[in-house]
Amino acid sequence: MYGASNLYTGQINYAIINSFLQYYNERTALIKINYTIQNIPENITIPYNTSIPGYRLDVSLRDFLEKYLIGIAKPVNISIEEIKPEALTNRSTILGWYTFGAIGMMYLYSGFSIGALIIVEEREKKTLKRILSTPITAFDLLIDRTLSGILTLMISTVIAIYL
Q1: Confidence at residue 51, expressed as pLDDT on a 0 to 100 scale
Q2: Max CA separation in the chain (angstroms)
Q3: Least reliable range by pLDDT among 15-19, 27-31, 37-41, 152-156
Q4: Backbone phi and psi for residue 5, each to the nearest 5 degrees, phi listed first
């Protein structure tokens, strides 16, 4: 019996208990097999003409029983390896990826804010009509405000990288 206050904790608890019991069962079976094999004399062999369909037996009884019983205890012999990308193997590269992510988020959110405030800010200050009455075009105004936003973001990027 295990605690399952919600579905997620139930699955985690089940996996922990199940994997422990499977490992315990496997280790106990292997210990029993080793104990049994140690008590069989080595010089007893299986006659050459005795066979199991698909196999010819010319090995000792001890070797045969050991492989046979281990095959029963561990029917699937697997090994699991964890493979991580090289970019995430040490602390400095992980922090580098976090820095790039932070810079990307900064550009994304600040870019939205700068883009939304380009015209609205000038309009609320009541300077938009004065600026547009000068020889500057609306396109020049947008380029100017965009470049000032990009410059601000680049300064923020330098600060984020070096601090």
Answers
A1: 57
A2: 109
A3: 37-41
A4: -65, -30
Render pLDDT for 73-131 as a digit per residue (tens, 0 to 9). 887 777 777 666 665 566 666 667 778 888 888 888 887 788 778 778 777 887 777 77
- Cβ 132 vs Cβ 140: under 8 Å: no
Cα 149 → chain centroid: 36
Q: What is the pTM of this model?
A: 0.40
Task: Give Cα 61 distance to the centre of its chain.
Answer: 46
What is the three-class DSSP state of 52? strand
**Inter-CA distances, 134 with 141, 146, 158, Å:** 11, 19, 35
Q: Annotate 106-160 with DSSP letters as a single string.
A: HHHHHHHHHHHHHHHHHHHTT-HHHHHTSS--HHHHHHHHHHHHHHHHHHHHHHH
Tell me how far apart the alpha carbons of residues 26 and 24 are, in angstroms, rounded to a whole number: 6
Give the confidence band of 56 by pLDDT, cuts at 50, 70, 90: low
Whether 141 contacts 131, CB under 8 Å:
yes
